[in-house]
Amino acid sequence: MIALIAGSLVLSVLHALIPNHWLPVLAISRREQWSLSQTTSVTLAAGLAHALSTVLLGGLIALAGRALSDSIEPFTHFFAPGVLIALGLFYMYQHHRHKHFHLHSKPVISPRQVVISLVIAMFFSPCLEIEAYFLMAGATGWWLVAVLAVLYTIVTVSGMVLWVRLTYRGLVKMNWHTLEHNAGIITGVTLVLTGIASFFLH
Questions:
Q1: CA nearest 168: which of 30, 45, 46?
Q2: Exposure on the CB side of residue 157, measured as CA atoms within 13 A
Q3: 174-189 pLDDT, tens digit each
Q4: How many CA atoms are closer than 13 Å to the CA of 99, on its beta-carbon side?
Q5: Residue 131 in contact with residue 57, Cβ under 8 Å?
Q6: What's the whole-model pTM score?
């Protein structure tokens, strides 16, 4: 339980910081000349859409974890932690294949359509890395699934809003490319460490 909550918290914080979660909003905001309040509102809507799809998918995966834990005795102790470790190794291996958000020519659509498109895009790009935690939480109980869902939503959405507001005002200057490039490694290490800890903490 402790390992799951700690691991999911680390991933939630990381994904609130990753530029591809909030940089598209900021880029469109600059192009459309939105105010800070408009930018904040759109970021909040996009973040909630992203969190909603992640939590809905997590709930379905938690159901699978619950079913497996009831029918396969070693699931909680061996298989589920193994999934975390395997997924972590995958992200470490794939860390160099990251995507950037590129803003090209200005599309001929209304501001409302821009916002709707952005929210839909965020809804259909759930955070897949966190889903392994929902798989394990389902084997423990629905209360832990709820804790992970609330924790992920609050940290991710508030983090996105905070970084957009700070960056909008020019208060934060960081090497976002380096952070984004290394996000796969950080994510992978977090998943592997959580998986290893889960072998010993149950």
A1: 30
A2: 22
A3: 555 555 556 667 667 7
A4: 7
A5: yes
A6: 0.73
